[in-house]
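Tokens as discussed.
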């Protein structure tokens, strides 16, 4: 009997569940099987592929290098099989299940409101989870299928992931209308050195520190910013500006219709891209392709 004759669809689904969950109990629960049945299928998989596939660790399993390599092929096979059983035409109104989006604070404000509005109308039975973007856990979450789509900035995304550029964005220097800085800039044009000296609030959503993306731009002019407050997200910074005599550099689309004063600069920081990204294993998934298509973008 050839190896392919000893392999069936259920074993591949067990492999997929073990790879994503890296825990026999969780994989069994996901598949509606007993742990004993999962163990039996794993034994057959090890025999067919002549590899241990998963090694035990304190709280579950860790995939072998061969299993890492095999996972994309298994996902493709299962997706292709699912496509055979799917309707010839993708109809979002019939889609059920859960779709998980990891998004930066900025993307939650600027990108997701319109996307969620469309999804609720066109795919009313699809449930959505929006979770904060966790830079250090992103690959683990997307590899395991716990996050379907990420919306962030290019530097946050692994190089191996497919991406789609949504639009280009730029930072604007702002302060509150009631600040002393607003009075100063109303009567004179500040230099970059002046701006660097003003007390500044930054948003540091990935890691709590006093370093922001604008710091490198100021360094080109031999300047260091006077950062006095580091906030965990962009959305809270305008409120802090209203209670402190300070400035901030915020993305232009995030401050529309806010009561803030823009400080005109003699030179502007570099623009940056906002992108959508997903794990390669989902590139051919019909739901994934449809949601990404709704985002439009400037590929």
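Sequence:
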């Amino acid at each position: 009997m050839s190896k392919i004759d000893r392999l069936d669809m259920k074993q591949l689904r067990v492999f997929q569940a073990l790879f994503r969950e890296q825990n026999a109990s969780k994989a069994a629960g996901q598949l509606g099987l007993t742990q004993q049945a999962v163990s039996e299928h794993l034994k057959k998989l090890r025999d067919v592929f002549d590899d241990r596939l998963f090694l035990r660790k304190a709280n579950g399993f860790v995939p072998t290098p061969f299993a890492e390599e095999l996972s994309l092929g298994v996902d493709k096979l299962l997706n292709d099989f699912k496509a055979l059983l799917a309707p010839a035409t993708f109809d979002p109104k019939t889609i059920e299940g859960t779709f998980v989006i990891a998004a930066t604070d900025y993307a939650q404000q600027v990108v997701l409101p319109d996307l969620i509005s469309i999804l609720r109308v066109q795919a009313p039975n699809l449930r959505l989870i929006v979770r904060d973007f966790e830079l250090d856990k992103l690959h683990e979450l997307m590899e395991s299928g716990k996050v379907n789509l990420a919306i962030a900035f290019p530097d946050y995304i692994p190089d191996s992931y497919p991406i789609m550029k949504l639009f280009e964005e730029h930072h604007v220097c702002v302060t509150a209308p009631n600040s002393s800085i607003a009075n100063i800039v109303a009567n004179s044009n500040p230099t970059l050195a002046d701006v660097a000296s003003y007390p500044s609030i930054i948003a540091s959503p990935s890691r709590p520190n006093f370093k922001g993306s604008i710091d490198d731009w100021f360094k080109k002019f031999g300047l260091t910013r006077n950062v006095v407050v580091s906030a965990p997200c962009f959305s809270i910074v305008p409120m802090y500006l209203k209670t402190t005599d300070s400035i901030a550099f915020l993305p232009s689309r995030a401050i529309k219709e806010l009561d803030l004063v823009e400080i005109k600069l003699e030179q502007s920081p570099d623009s940056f891209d906002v992108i959508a990204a997903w794990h390669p294993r989902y590139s051919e998934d019909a739901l994934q392709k449809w949601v990404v298509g709704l985002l439009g973008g400037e590929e």
